[in-house]
Design a protein that fits this description.
Structural class: mainly alpha
Distance between the termini: 30 Å
Largest sheet: none
Order of helices and strands: HHHHHHHHH
Shape: globular
Number of helices: 9
Number of domains: 2
Radius of gyration: 19 Å
Oligomer: single chain
Number of strands: 0
CATH topology of the largest domain: Rna Polymerase Sigma Factor, Chain: A
CATH class of the largest domain: Mainly Alpha
Helix content: 55-70%
Length: 217
C-alpha cells in the first residue's frame, strides 16, 4: 500500500492553511496564558498542532470523512485535544497514538451523521474533478488514484481500516497498534490480514469497473 505522505492533500491545498488552530471564544484565552507552566503547556499544544495537523487531516480522510467536511472535523479533533491536553502522557509513541484515538471517534461520529443525513454521496469529489484545470494531466491522474484508494478504503470496516492505516501507512508496529486501539495483539494481526485482503479485492473491483466504463464510451 502506498503512503500518501509525499503526495500532499487532495486538491493540492495543505490543511495548514485551511484549518485555523482552535482559538475561539473561551478557549482562546486558555491557549494564551501569561506565565509559568500554563504558558509552557500552550506552547507545547501549539507545537503539537503544527506538527500533527497533516497526520490528523489525512487519517480523517482515510477513515471516511468527506473532503467537504474534513477541515471542520480536523478543527474538532484539535478542540477535543486541547480540552484534554492535560491527560496526554508520552508513552514512547509520541502524540500520534493519542491523537488517533480522537481522530477515530470523530471520524466514526461523522460517518454516522452522514448515514443519517446523506447529502453528497461522493463527498464533493465529482465537483472537484470537474473544476480541475484540464491541462494538469498528472494532477488529474494522481487525483484519480487517490480517489480510487479512498473509495476502496471506505469499503473496509472501520475497525480493520484503523489497524491497516496505523500499521501500513503510519508505520506503527503491531504491538503499538494494539496499545493505541486498546485491542489484543492477535486481533491486530487478524484484522490486518483481513483488511489487506479486503483492500486488494476492493481496488481490483474498482479498477475493473473503471476499465469497463472506459470501454463503453
Amino acid at each position: 500500500m502506498t503512503d500518501e505522505k509525499g503526495v500532499g492533500h487532495p486538491g493540492g491545498m495543505s490543511p495548514a492553511h485551511a484549518v485555523p488552530i482552535p482559538e475561539h471564544g473561551a478557549r482562546a484565552a486558555s491557549l494564551k496564558p501569561a506565565t509559568g507552566v500554563h504558558e509552557t503547556r500552550a506552547g507545547a499544544f501549539r507545537r503539537m498542532y503544527e506538527a500533527q495537523l497533516d497526520f490528523v487531516w489525512r487519517n480523517l480522510r482515510r477513515l471516511g470523512v468527506s473532503e467537504a467536511d474534513v477541515d471542520d472535523k480536523a478543527q474538532e479533533v484539535f478542540v477535543v485535544a486541547h480540552r484534554r491536553f492535560a491527560e496526554f502522557e508520552e508513552r514512547g509513541h509520541g502524540p500520534r497514538a493519542w491523537l488517533f484515538q480522537i481522530v477515530l471517534r470523530v471520524a466514526s461520529d461523522a460517518r454516522r451523521h452522514r448515514r443519517r443525513h446523506p447529502v453528497d454521496p461522493d463527498g464533493g469529489a465529482a465537483q472537484e474533478r470537474q473544476s480541475m484545470p484540464p491541462n494538469q494531466a498528472d494532477s488529474i491522474d494522481l487525483r484519480q488514484q487517490l480517489d480510487l484508494l479512498d473509495r476502496a478504503l471506505r469499503t473496509i470496516d472501520i475497525g480493520k481500516r484503523a489497524v491497516l492505516l496505523l500499521h501500513e501507512v503510519e508505520e506503527m508496529t503491531a504491538p503499538e497498534v494494539a496499545e493505541v486501539l486498546g485491542i489484543p495483539l492477535n486481533t491486530v494481526y487478524s484484522r490486518l490480514r483481513v483488511a489487506r485482503s479486503d483492500l486488494e479485492e476492493a481496488v481490483g473491483k474498482l479498477q475493473r469497473e473503471q476499465e469497463e466504463a472506459r470501454n463503453e464510451r
